[in-house]
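Aim 2, interim progress: modelling of the zinc ion-bound target.
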Amino acid sequence: MMGALPNNRHEAFCLEYMKDRAGGAAYRRAGYNTKSNDVAAAAASRLLINVKSGVPQRIAEFEAEYATKIGFEIEDALNKYLSILNADPATLTSLMRGACRYCQGTNHDFQWRTSREYADAVKKYDTAGQVAQIMMLEPSDLGGYGYRASQSPHPDCPECDGFGIARAHFAGTDNIPEASRPLFAGVKETQHGIEVKMHDQMAALDALAKHIGFFAKDHTCDLDTSDALTELLAGMIQKSSKMPVNSRSRQASNAANAPRS
Ligand SMILES: [Zn+2]
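Predicted structure of the complex, ligand included:
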C-alpha cells in the first residue's frame, strides 16, 4: 500500500478522477486553475501517465481496492462489454418489408384482407352520402382477398415498384437469443409507440479499444490483454459501420401510429 500521495493536489486529483474518470473535470475539481477545459484535459492526461508523481500508481491502487470491495474485476467489465458487442441488434429489432395492398392482388388491384373488411368499406361508402362519396373511391373487390402484411412484395407491383411497405419488427423478449440478451436494456411504452432500448455498442467498443490501448499513439497495448481480445476488437472496429451510432441507447418506435395497411 502506498497510501495518500505527499502532494495534496495530486491526491485530490486521484480521488476526483475515481468519481467519474473525467480527467479534465477532475483536474479542475482538485483545485487547479486552468484557462480552458482543453488545457485541463491535457494536463490531466499528462498527470495520469506521470509515474514520478505517483498518480498512475495511486489510481491503480484505488482500482484494486474498489474491485476487491465490490467483487468486480476488470475482466468482468471487459466480458460484459464484449457480450454487448457480440450481440446482434437485428435480433431485437429489425426492418421488415412486406407486400403492399397491390402487390399480390389480382391484376395488382387492391387486395382485401377478408370479405368482412370489404363489406365494412362498402357499408362506409354507401352511408357516406353523395357529397362525401365524390371524395371517396368506390370499393371494389377485383383484387380479391387474403392480404397479409407478411407476404413478399411483388417485384412487378406498379404501386410500390417491388419495395413493399417497411415495418419495424420487435422481437418478443422470450424470443431474444441468449447471445443478444446483454444488449437488451428494456422496453418503454411512449405516446408514439414502443421503444426498445439497447445498451450502447459503440461505447462498449470504445471502452474495450481504450483498454487495449488501441488509440495510444505508439499502438502498443498498455495492459495484459489476450491476443484473442485484440483480434476480436480489430475485427469489430472494421465492422463498426454496421453498429448503431446513436449515443446512450438506440431507440426505435413501432408503427403504431402509422396508417394501417
Ligand atoms: Zn406493392
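The CA atoms of residues 125 and 138 lie 7 Å apart. Residues 1-72 form a domain with the Arc Repressor Mutant, subunit A fold (CATH 1.10.10).
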